[in-house]
Amino acid sequence: MKELKKYIFPVIFLILIGLSYLFDIAAGEKIGLNFWMFFKEMIMFLPLMFVLIGLFDVWVPREKIEKHIGRESGWKGTGLVILLATLQAGPLYGAFPFAYILWKKGCSIRNVFIYLGAFSTIKIPMLTFEIGFLGLKFSLLRTMITLPVYILIGYLIEWHLKDKGFEVKQP
Amino acid sequence: MKLLSIFTAVCLIASLIANPQKTWIGIKKGLATFLKLLPALISVLALVSLVLFLLPEETLVKYMGEGSGIKGWIIAALFGSVALIPGFIAYPLCGILVKTGVAYSVIAVFITTLMMTGFLTLPVEARFFGWKVSVIRNLVSLAAALLIGLVMGFLL
Lengths: 171, 156
Description:
The complex is a heterodimer. Chain A is mostly helical. Helices cover 78% and strands 0% of the residues of chain A. Chain A is built from nine helices and no strands. In chain A, helix 2 (8-22) runs antiparallel to helix 3 and helix 7 (109-121) packs antiparallel against helix 9 (136-161). Chain B contains eight helices and no strands. The radius of gyration of chain B is 20 Å and the shape is elongated. Classes of the chains: A mainly alpha, B mainly alpha. Chains A and B meet through helix 2, helix 3, helix 6, helix 7 and helix 8 of A and helix 1, helix 2, helix 5, helix 6 and helix 7 of B.
């Protein structure tokens, strides 16, 4: 029953969009078009991402992750998660499941949030786009200023959550 | 996108050769999580498309273009936090904003909030981190975006 309840809103939404197309309601059609754009973006890359996460889960041993980006990993660990994040692409919600698997394998809280920060703000594939539209100076400055800021956020959140039994849940 | 597909394919093939059984377990695990998350994701995307309809690009350009000083910052931060615009649309939009005379610091706030905070995606984020931590992360990121804008304003 609870499983079914989750589908109520999406189903109502899709029915309304369908009706808009049937009766030529411009507003509904525009919303439908927006939805299609987002849905396409999501469905093209998330399943791939989850397959990778599944493979990561069965292949990468916990000790490896713990050693390289775990609690005691220091600056090298931070550098590693940033490198990992900047090479990826896609919207932020795609990073949450990966953050979960990293945490499950022993990544420190600090590095989980640094990963999210790096994933959202500094992606190499997107940087070329940014330089094209906003210029090299703006893009480099923004990247360089943002970098220490979210490392700081990682430390802050870890400090805040220390000894609180925080865990990243499986959705 | 192409890169991700190729990368996934290579990993899959390597994994299948090394250990088919383990590979299937991994794929099943990954896709099961995806299917569990899908209804929440669709709901969020539906909400986002509704908001984007109510606040089309022209409106964004108009309001951020008018906003000078503090007002421009607040509008940029608000729009950026709520909207979820993919990069390939956001950057051209910012290019337009610059041409209409919007300050670089305001653009920096807009872009940073756009990418780091997502108040509409909170229901999805909360599934992983819980509501409290998700809200904290978003609020801290919002403050960080304003700080980044401030520094950018000084430097540019």
